[in-house]
Design goal:
- The chain has 281 residues and is α/β, with parallel strands linked by helices.
- The protein has two domains: 43 residues, no CATH class; 232 residues, Vaccinia Virus protein VP39 (Rossmann fold, 3-Layer(aba) Sandwich), CATH 3.40.50.150.
- Helices cover 42% and strands 16% of the residues.
- The chain is built from eleven helices and seven strands.
- A seven-stranded mixed β-sheet has the order 3-2-1-4-5-7-6, sandwiched between helices.
- Helix 5 links the parallel strand 1 and strand 2.
- The chain is globular.
- Bound molecules: S-adenosylmethionine.
């Protein structure tokens, strides 16, 4: 009941939800709060990442998996992957699932943008360098895959034999890098859940960024969808109606309609509850 009230307040907008989320975040540092509470209240440092890991793990369990993989495209300094490790530990303990983490990056920062589709007016060669030695001291189990995704993805599945991918964080900035990274979806179906959580970092931004469907990550999504009949990347509509946190419009689902598990029933007790309550009162 208390969790539900906190969820309701924290999913609203204004100063009270903001303060409450801040306090819950601080309490987490002391009491190591549950991933469920942190996701319900959007109270972690990266609620977008937390939401995707947590729900990917739930989906995986419902489909009968005991392990999943999480991928970050674009690691840079590594704050994202450090968060992924920390939060996935909570999810692993709570949901009894193993989580592998893979981070792809060039190490030397952004390469030269190729054309207008890479938003030359906003991204510059050399930005977002990684300090690999420093980062490696902070991570314990994540695998860093260094090099251009157009090459490193070619041998990724053979080299790592990853558990099914349940969530992908897209932060390669450019159209060309993002469309290259979508080659991951050509991997054998055993390497994926039938539906995968995706976060796109560069689709909402400031007045200067002006992201749109004709450049950058949004164009890559459009191109992917028009080139694939049974695989689609679509916005997660159940988040966009609630509160004004930006990230809630940046979560997408990848659907592979042809995946042999796509139609596997996962309704469980949530559907049983709806079924019981739908009758005329
Ligand atoms: C904005 S940074 C990522 C930030 C990080 N996700 C975070 O949350 O802190 C973008 C990164 O994408 C990487 N990148 C861009 N194009 C790439 C490509 N084709 N292959 C591999 N990495 C690439 C760059 O090296 C850069 O470090």
């Amino acid at each position: 009941m208390i969790k539900k009230i906190l969820e309701k307040i924290c999913n609203g907008s204004g100063i009270l939800p903001y303060l409450l989320k801040y306090i819950i975040g601080k309490l987490d540092n002391i009491f190591n709060l549950s991933s469920t509470l942190l996701v319900m209240t959007n109270s972690s440092d990266r609620p977008n990442y937390a939401y995707c890991i947590y729900h990917a793990a739930i989906l995986a369990k419902k489909l009968g998996h005991n392990s999943i993989s999480i991928v970050e495209f674009g690691v840079a300094g590594g704050n994202g992957i450090v968060f992924l490790e920390k939060f996935s530990k909570k999810v692993e303990n709570e949901l009894k699932i193993k989580i592998e983490i893979y981070g792809f990056d060039l190490e030397d920062g952004l390469s030269k943008p190729k054309d207008y589709k890479d938003l030359k007016y906003w991204f510059k060669e050399g930005y977002y360098k990684m300090n690999k030695l420093k980062l490696e001291k902070k991570i314990h189990k994540s695998k860093l895959i260094i090099g251009d995704v157009s090459k490193t993805l070619n041998k990724f599945f053979d080299e790592f034999n990853p558990a099914p991918i349940g969530a992908i964080f897209h932060d390669l900035d450019f159209y060309h890098s993002t469309i290259d990274s979508f080659k991951i979806f050509n991997g054998e179906e055993k390497y994926f859940l039938p539906r995968v959580y995706n976060y796109f970092d560069d689709i909402l931004g400031s007045e200067l960024e002006m992201y749109n469907e004709f450049t950058g990550e949004l164009l890559a999504i459009e191109d992917f969808n028009s080139e694939n009949k049974f695989k689609k990347i679509v916005i997660n509509k159940n988040l966009v109606t609630s509160n004004n946190e930006k990230w809630r419009s940046q979560i997408y689902h990848f659907h592979n309609f042809a995946h042999s598990d796509y139609n596997k029933y996962i309704g469980g007790q949530e559907q049983d509850y709806l079924n019981k309550n739908i009758g005329l009162r």
